[in-house]
């Protein structure tokens, strides 16, 4: 008999998203071999919603016109069960066919004039509104029919929110007006409209109600079954936290790959982001076997195999179980298969050791994954945090993400350093938690406009953490500024490593601050001077306003009053990365618990239990690291892994989990060192020790 804890053993997922014509030529044997060879233990298969791939009896539930008297969904479920796999049925309710739209116009998303919204990509079908009977009743019945008729463990809903914009259907208008007293906002992210924050809260609440309805509907038929909505890269952002705690056994995050100038560590960030909000929930990272270029939409294509492999591996290195998806069951280009088989095989090899060991870190970067509260309206763009993330990866400082929603004394307790890259919006309670954390000896690195606004986006006259920063606001943000520099004005560890340089590049958006007594100022702004004509390119005045302020008390604090993270992410100037790393290392007060020395770009994860520690090294050293796609994995140059041993450790032994060999260990000054040579994409150094 299956039990509700089945998601804990569903750790490698195959997803097959069927096209309408697939039933005419579905090769079940091929897909069975892929599931077997990849050592997948769970599968997600298209079942219904926009198109049904089983003989549905629900009116207006469009059956594939190529299905005839076959049951492709049932055949794939039977094949997966034959391999002992968990099974999830995929539904997609974001659009309906013309017959349903004609019979039930009240189901459709509408524009401000009340006109139904046609699908942007495929004319003749219509977008649905999540706040109508289509989602509450029709989708519920589809889910119940699938669970009643097939041996499945869950329903997985793609694009379950319906139309992503504001739908002005009559049902949505009426519900919003009855619940809030407002009319629907005329524009998204218009913070001047008092209806906007009310809409954000209402939408989150209503979507959460939907998930509760759907989850209860499937549990009613199969007590172990769950309804799991697909999530974007910001896990659970559209759901009430209490709902997540009650009904979510796992997260499935739809960040299928990278495009443009995006670092491959973005895969691992998915796991960190989820853990930073709900640390006790497993999270899966959906990886597409095709390229992720949304402006071109090559959804039935194949990405370079090494790109797929790297994306999967970096995701599971940071704790996101692997999940791959293929759109269209017809395989015209099978080059993705070996990459998936190899990456999933690596996960299966490492899982027995790594799964019981939680990921740990001494440093936490606050993640501004707040929904609907971004003053700029750029809900998915956080360049300051991206820059700090890149700098910490380059500096090889293991770190976690910590969601700003859960910034509290309890969640801060495990960390030695907290980083606020640009945590603009902090409540008085959150500021108090940070203040107490520093007073208890925690380190803090903060930049830009951190704590300058309250949780509602209202500006403060001074930083909410001015006393902690040792800095007061004296003039508002100005910029963008060209040709800005900061001068080194005294010896301090934060200003170390810049060689003979007397000044380095500064920022583009600057705050005027005054340092409080008892602080040090290792960098000051060079007053503005022209960048043209070239003959005018010289400083007129000596450095004056503080550009970096440090304060040492129970905890060490660094405050940087400019857009350090954002400008590093935009320009990747090495001095900015060094400044971030210096600040974090000084605030930490010593060498990190685990370090990896050597050339190259690596993404690190540290896991530990009572008598062992595992350092996972993902090799991102590649000319395509910051502009995909990766064509090949370049072997990592020799590295030295160094780990601080507990005081009572009686020596240590090391094993390389990917290579499968024992490694010599040298113990010096309480640290165990292991030389790592010949590593490819990933290696894990597993150190164990016995107490004296």
Automatic annotation (TrEMBL):
<dbReference type="InterPro" id="IPR052177">
    <property type="entry name" value="Divisome_Glycosyl_Hydrolase"/>
</dbReference>
<dbReference type="InterPro" id="IPR028212">
    <property type="entry name" value="GHL6"/>
</dbReference>
<dbReference type="InterPro" id="IPR017853">
    <property type="entry name" value="GH"/>
</dbReference>
<dbReference type="InterPro" id="IPR029062">
    <property type="entry name" value="Class_I_gatase-like"/>
</dbReference>
<protein>
    <submittedName>
        <fullName>Family 10 glycosylhydrolase</fullName>
    </submittedName>
</protein>
<dbReference type="Pfam" id="PF14871">
    <property type="entry name" value="GHL6"/>
</dbReference>
């Amino acid at each position: 008999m299956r039990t509700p804890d089945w998601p804990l053993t569903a750790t490698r997922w195959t997803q097959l998203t069927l096209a309408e014509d697939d039933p005419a030529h579905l090769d079940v044997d091929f897909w069975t071999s892929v599931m077997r060879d990849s050592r997948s233990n769970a599968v997600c298969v298209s079942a219904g919603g926009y198109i049904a791939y089983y003989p549905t009896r629900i009116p207006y539930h469009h059956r594939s016109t190529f299905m005839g008297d076959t049951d492709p969904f049932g055949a794939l479920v039977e094949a997966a069960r034959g391999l002992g796999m968990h099974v999830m049925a995929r539904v997609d309710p974001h659009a309906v066919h013309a017959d349903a739209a004609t019979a039930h116009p009240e189901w459709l998303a509408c524009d401000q004039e009340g006109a139904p919204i046609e699908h942007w990509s495929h004319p003749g079908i219509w977008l649905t509104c999540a706040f109508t009977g289509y989602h509450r009743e029709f989708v519920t019945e589809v889910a119940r029919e699938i669970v009643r008729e097939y041996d499945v463990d869950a329903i997985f809903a793609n694009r379950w929110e319906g139309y992503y914009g504001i739908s002005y259907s009559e049902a949505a208008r009426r519900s919003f007006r009855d619940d809030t007293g407002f009319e629907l906002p005329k524009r998204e992210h218009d913070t001047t409209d008092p209806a906007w924050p009310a809409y954000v809260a209402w939408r989150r609440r209503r979507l959460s109600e939907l998930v509760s309805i759907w989850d209860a509907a499937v549990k009613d038929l199969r007590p172990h079954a769950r309804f799991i909505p697909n999530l974007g890269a910001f896990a659970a952002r559209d759901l009430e936290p209490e709902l997540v705690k009650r009904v979510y056994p796992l997260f499935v995050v739809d960040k299928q790959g990278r495009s443009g100038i995006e670092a491959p560590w973005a895969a691992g960030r998915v796991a960190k982001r989820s853990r930073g909000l709900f640390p006790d929930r497993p999270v899966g990272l959906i990886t597409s076997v095709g390229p992720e270029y949304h402006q071109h939409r090559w959804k039935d294509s194949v990405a370079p195999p090494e790109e797929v492999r790297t994306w999967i591996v970096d995701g599971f290195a940071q704790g996101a179980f692997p999940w791959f998806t293929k759109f269209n069951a017809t395989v015209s280009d099978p080059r993705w298969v070996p990459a998936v088989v190899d990456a999933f095989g690596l996960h299966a090899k490492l899982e027995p050791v790594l799964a019981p060991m939680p990921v740990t870190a001494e440093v936490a970067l606050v993640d501004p994954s707040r929904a609907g509260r971004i003053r700029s309206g750029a809900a998915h763009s956080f360049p300051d945090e991206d820059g700090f993330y890149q700098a910490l990866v380059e500096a090889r400082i293991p770190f976690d993400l910590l969601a700003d929603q859960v910034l509290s004394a309890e969640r801060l307790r495990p960390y030695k350093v907290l980083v606020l890259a640009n945590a603009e919006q902090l409540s008085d309670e959150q500021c108090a938690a940070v203040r107490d954390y520093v007073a208890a000896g925690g380190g803090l690195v903060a930049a830009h406009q951190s704590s300058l606004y309250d949780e509602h986006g209202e500006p403060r006259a001074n930083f909410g953490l001015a006393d902690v920063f040792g800095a007061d606001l004296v003039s508002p943000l100005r910029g963008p500024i060209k040709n800005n520099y900061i001068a080194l004005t005294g010896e301090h560890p934060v200003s170390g490593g810049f060689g003979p340089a007397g000044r380095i590049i500064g920022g583009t958006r600057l705050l005027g601050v005054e340092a409080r007594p008892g602080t040090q100022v290792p960098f000051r702004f060079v007053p503005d001077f022209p960048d043209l004509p070239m003959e005018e390119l010289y400083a007129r005045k000596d450095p004056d306003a503080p550009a970096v302020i440090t304060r040492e008390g129970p905890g060490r604090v660094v405050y940087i009053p400019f857009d350090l993270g954002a400008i590093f992410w935009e320009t990747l100037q090495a001095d900015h990365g060094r400044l971030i790393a210096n600040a974090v290392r000084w605030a930490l007060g010593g060498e990190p618990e685990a370090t990896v020395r050597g050339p190259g770009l690596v993404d690190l994860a540290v896991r530990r239990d009572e008598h062992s520690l595992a350092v996972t090294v993902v090799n991102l050293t590649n000319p395509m690291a910051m502009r995909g796609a990766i064509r090949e994995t370049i072997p990592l140059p020799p590295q030295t892994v160094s780990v601080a041993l507990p005081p009572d450790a009686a020596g240590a032994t090391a094993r390389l989990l990917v290579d499968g060999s024992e490694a010599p260990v040298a113990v010096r000054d309480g640290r165990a060192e292991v030389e790592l040579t010949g590593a490819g994409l990933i290696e894990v150094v597993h150190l164990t020790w016995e107490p004296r």
